[in-house]
Amino acid sequence: MNGKTVMACLDAAHASLKEHADEIASLDQAIGDGDHIINLLRGMDALAAMRAQIEADAFAPALKLAATKVLSTVGGSSGPLFFSMLTGMAKASADDADSAGVAAFARAFAAGVEAVGQRGKTGVGSKTMMDVLIPVAERFTAMAEAGASRQDVLDALPRIAEEHMLATRDMLATKGRASFLGERSRGHIDPGARSSQLMIEAVCAYIARDEA
Ligand code: ADP
Ligand code: MG
């Protein structure tokens, strides 16, 4: 794992977000202000524009570089949250930066999710991206501790992400803009849960396909 891997994962996430842009826009129009996908794609375009720099770095510095760009371009609630995700991962992986076995990557991912929780001051149950990120981090950690193979992890995580993304539909939003709707927030999937799930799915598919 190095800057090239980081960029390839960002590319995979970017492609999936673009493909699902209309759907994510409708989700945020239903329970937010409609800008979630615009915010994310602005950031992804900016990251693609600094490809050479990201690719030239080692794993942790590449994540930090990407995080700084995300903070200055994404905006909304999700910009600072994704910044925290990437810096949290970078900090946790600084020591084992390029070694990146399943266990090291699980630790980094869990640290990223923990940082998002600290920044957004929420856990599961408030109908946000955390409802996807936390169960995925927990399963990832449990599988890594049990010595699961890379392939098993790459099969399991997208399934967990999808299941928990779908479960946000019936939840009551108690954080972020959607919470202003109260009971009317029910019946719609959370846009941040959907975008996080899509990115997790795309990155797992990329690693399974091209990093095998
Ligand atoms: P904004 O709501 O400011 O317009 P975005 O549209 O970019 O920001 O992002 C909305 C998404 O951010 C929501 O769908 C939700 O998943 C996520 N979100 C909002 N507040 C929080 C929070 N405190 N913790 C975690 N995620 C949050
Ligand atoms: Mg929004």
Automatic annotation (TrEMBL):
Domain of life: Bacteria
Keywords, ordered alphabetically: Kinase, Transferase
Keyword Metal-binding attributed: no
GO cellular component, one term: cytosol
Key word Transferase present: yes
SUPFAM superfamilies tied to this protein: DhaL-like
Database matches in InterPro entries: DhaK_L_YcgS, DhaL_dom, DhaL_dom_sf, Dihydroxyacetone_Kinase
Identification of the protein by name: Kinase
BP GO terms, sorted: glycerol catabolic process
Family annotation (SMART domains): Dak2
Gene Ontology molecular function, alphabetical: glycerone kinase activity
